[in-house]
Every structure is written in structure tokens, then in C-alpha cells.
Amino acid sequence: MKAAYIEQIGPPENVRYGELPLPAAGPHDVLVRVAAVCVDPIDVYIRSGMFPLPLTFPFIIGRDMAGTVEKVGTAVTRFAVGDRVWCNNQGYDGRQGTFSEYVAVNEQLLYPLPKCVDEQEAVAFVHSGLTACIGLGLANVRPGETIFVNGGSGNVGSAIIQLAIGRGARVFATAGSSAGVDWCRSLGVDGIANYKVDDVNAALAKFAPDGVDIYWDTSGQPDFDSAVARLARGGRLILMAGLAARPSFPVGPFYVKGCSMYGFAITHATEADLATSAEEINCWMSAGKLRVRIDRVLPLSAAATAHRLVEEKAHLAGKIVLIP
């Protein structure tokens, strides 16, 4: 089969495209013919070595996948040949990635893809969607609560907005362009500000005079002074971005307000967390209530180019999807 892989960690130029053996599928595995994959920041971190993991080379890169079941192991009970499926949890913990024509996935790490959902749109949404689900669950978001999403027009930010609204929260978001502001508005935010030209604090004060219940910064460059100042008493701060960030922290204001902070990496999510979140995402996707932006669709042979664009933080309006 054709695959995109590396033989050692390093820059995007280390990504190769060529022939590798078809993966062996064990009794509990499902062999999937891949229809679409997606490039996430975590893919860049693993390929570069910034997120260190024990890898077996040649190592097929990638986490996400949507495709069709080609073959099932003798002990598989949840899937049959011809089923449409997706996953988000390959490419680490000893598992090869998804950037190939075929991938073998343990049935417990594979989820059904609703018939009405486009494979490219699904694979572009699931990583961000799972991140949003897990974070909102950790913070125990309740109907009527307020949430501030710093970077609402990004991939994760867009998912947070939609799933938070779906849980009954009121959402205030920021974006860095007029197009980003329009996109957030189209997702149904209750308040929006362009952080480059607007007075965010003034706009947020009108939205939530006593502060917001939840503050989620997707930028990767958290400013804790601003975050804690914007939180209400008992507010919750969510962290899931900024691998190299080392900001100062306002200890006094944080504990005086009785705030709490949750940090997580989706890479370390449990099977139970992923399964619960996948079920929620499938419900929303089936109802046609989740929207995602795809910046471009490229052939799998362009995996190195796609990695470079994500690593360089090019001006992408959505995800990069690759087709084997």
C-alpha cells in the first residue's frame, strides 16, 4: 500500500511517501480502506519530536481517519465489511498512524460514521470535536453558564462554540479578522469581538458583568493575568494548547476568586472518554448541526507539504484534508 511515513523524527522534509506492507490485522482488529485523513498540530509535534513518544520506524504518521471496513478480525463484533467508520487515536502508544491506503484499528478505538455525513468533513472535525467534548466535560459546563473562547474562529474554537451552545451555554468568542468574526457569528455566538481592533474587556463586561464561568484559550499563548481577571468567582480555566508556553501566573487573584483550572492532552484520553465523546459527536453530525471549515484537500503524496503548512502556522482557513 501507499503510505506517508518517517524513518526518523525531524522536519517536514523527513516525511516520505512510498510503498509499505499492508498492516496485519489481529482477531480484534478492523482493516479499513482509508478515504480521508487530516493534519492536526499534534501530528506535527510527534513527527518533529516536540511531543516525544517511542516510535517504531518506519512510522506511519497521522491520527485521524475516515473510511470503509475492508475486513474484520475473527473476534470483532461491532463492525462488518462495508461499514463506514472513523477514528482519531492512532499514531501513538505503539500504534501506526493513518496516513496510508489501509489501516488496522482495534474495534474499541473505531467509531461508526453516520451515513449522511461526508467523510472529508467528518475527518476534519473529529479531532477538534473530541477536544471540545473532553474539555467541556472536565469543566462540567451547565446550561445557562457563560464561556469565553479566545480564538473562536480556529478549528478547536469553532468546535467549542458549537458544542457549548449545544449544551445550553452562552458563548462569547474572539477572532482576529472580520472573516473570523463572521464565521463565529454564523455558528451562533452570543457575543463576539475582534481582538485586534475591538476593546475585548469592554465587550466582555457587557456580556458577563460579573465575569465568565469558563475561560478557554485556544491560542497556545495563554495570558493568565487576563484570563483570571475575566473569570467570575468559582470560574474554571481550561488549558489544552501551548506546549512550549511558560507564562507567569497570578496566584493571589486565582485562589481568592475560588477558581479552578483543568489541563488535558487528548492524546492521553482514555478509551471510555473517547467513546463517550464520539457518541456525542456522531449524534450532532447525524443531525447536521456541526459545521467545519476545510482549507484545502490534497493528495496523500503531499503529506510533507501539509505538515509544513501546519507547522509554519500558515494562514489556513480550516483543516487540511488528504486523500489516499
SSE order, as H and E?
EEEHEEEEEHEHEHEHEHEHEHEHE
How much beta, percentage-wise?
25-35%
CATH class category name of the largest domain: Alpha Beta
How far is the N terminus from the C terminus? 10 Å
Our count of helices gives 9
Relevant CATH superfamily of the largest domain: Medium-chain alcohol dehydrogenases, catalytic domain
What's the average pLDDT?
A: 96
Residue runs with pLDDT of under 50 for 5 or more positions? none
The SS-based structural class is alpha/beta
Give the strand tally.
Answer: 16
CATH architectural arrangement of the largest domain: Alpha-Beta Complex
Give an overview in words.
With 324 residues, the protein is α/β, with parallel strands linked by helices. It folds into two domains: 2-116 and 288-323, Medium-chain alcohol dehydrogenases, catalytic domain (Quinone Oxidoreductase, Chain A, domain 1, Alpha-Beta Complex); 132-266, NAD(P)-binding Rossmann-like Domain (Rossmann fold). The protein contains nine helices and 16 strands. It has helices at residues 41-48, 119-138, 155-166, 178-186, 200-207, 224-230, 251-256, 271-286, 303-311, and strands at residues 2-6, 16-19, 29-38, 59-60, 65-72, 84-87, 102-106, 111-112, 146-150, 170-175, 191-194, 212-217, 231-239, 260-263, 294-299, 319-323. Strand 15 (294-299), helix 9 (303-311) and strand 16 (319-323) form a beta-alpha-beta unit. The protein is globular and about 60 Å long. The N and C termini lie close together (10 Å). The model has no long low-confidence stretch (mean pLDDT 96).
